[in-house]
Amino acid sequence: MRSPLPLPLALTARLSPVVVLAAAGWALASGPFAAEPAAAPKAEQTTGNRSASAPATSAASKTYAAAPAPCSGVSKKTITSLVPGAKPAGKEIPSTDSTLRRTCSWNALKGYDYRWLDVSYEVMDSDEAAQTSYRETVEQRSGGGDVPGVGDAGYSVVNLTTADKQETREGVVLVRASNALVTITYNGSDFESRKAPGTDEINKGAIKAAKEAVAALENGRRG
User: Fold this and answer.
1) Where does the pLDDT of residue 15 fall: very low under 50, low under 70, confident under 90, or very high at 90 and above?
2) What gap in Å lies between CA 212 and CA 49, rounded to an integer?
3) How far apart are alpha carbons 169 and 146 in whole angstroms?
4) What is the pTM (predicted TM-score) of this model?
5) With bands split at pLDDT 50, 70 and 90, how would you rate the model's confidence at 220?
6) Structural contact between residues 26 and 118, judged by C-beta atoms closer than 8 angstroms
7) Measuring CA to CA, which residue among 75, 119, 125, 60 is closest to residue 99?
8) Which residues of 121-158 are buried (b: 16+ CB within 10 A; e: fewer)?
9) For residues 132 and 150, what is the distance between their CA atoms, to the nearest angstrom?
10) What is the rounded distance in angstroms from the CA atom of residue 96 to the CA atom of residue 117?
């Protein structure tokens, strides 16, 4: 029986790919967006020598005006189950606009098993903009399938990567709820066997986190 890989070396060898994978989860939620709509032309009518401008059209209402606190998007019980050994509070990742985009991350190494979970929210200008971003992202990540019963549309895909003979399996779930996008990134590795968790385990875990994160969005502040 071979000796297990020394922990510091294993963590060093694995950390870089995991960070890249986690970053990819955020990139997924911040993909290309629809261009800003052009300003509506002013309507003007003339009566005799008087010229009156029609009242400006009010901005379209949005279901969600701001991204919720991402570290509260998933229950402590679920964090303990999906990321054993992680602190339930999680760590929020700095954002260029925390009103519209927020992400929380949990990761932990328990024994030789490593797990990483990201929960990301992005609020867009309109349902149409969110629909466009959702559609383009799904087209870019083929090979997955629909997730029924969550938000207005849900999609899940699981991929296996190998770096230096170390496997990592990552599941990504993208959900559109009105003008908001919710992205879950969940991945894992076993540093002793150098194998990855099963597809079913990763996929179910990501979907469970997605359902809780969407529920937290829907139960939170609305615009």
Assistant:
1) very low
2) 61
3) 19
4) 0.73
5) confident
6) yes
7) 125
8) bbbbbbbebbbbbbeebbeebeebeebeebbebbbbbb
9) 18
10) 21
Give the CA angle between residues 11, 93, 155 to the nearest 5°. 85
Q: Which residues pair with 155 in a beta bridge?
A: 146, 174
Tell me, rounded to whole angstroms, the distance of Cα 152 from its chain centroid: 15
Where do runs of H (alpha helix) occur along 58-198? Answer: 76-82, 127-140
Segments making up each domain of the chain, as ranges: 7-31+62-219
Q: What is the DSSP letter of 61?
A: P
Give the pLDDT of residue 60: 57
Q: How confident is the model at residue 32 (pLDDT cuts 50, 70, 90)?
A: very low
Q: What is the number of other CB atoms lying within 10 angstroms of the CB of residue 194?
A: 16
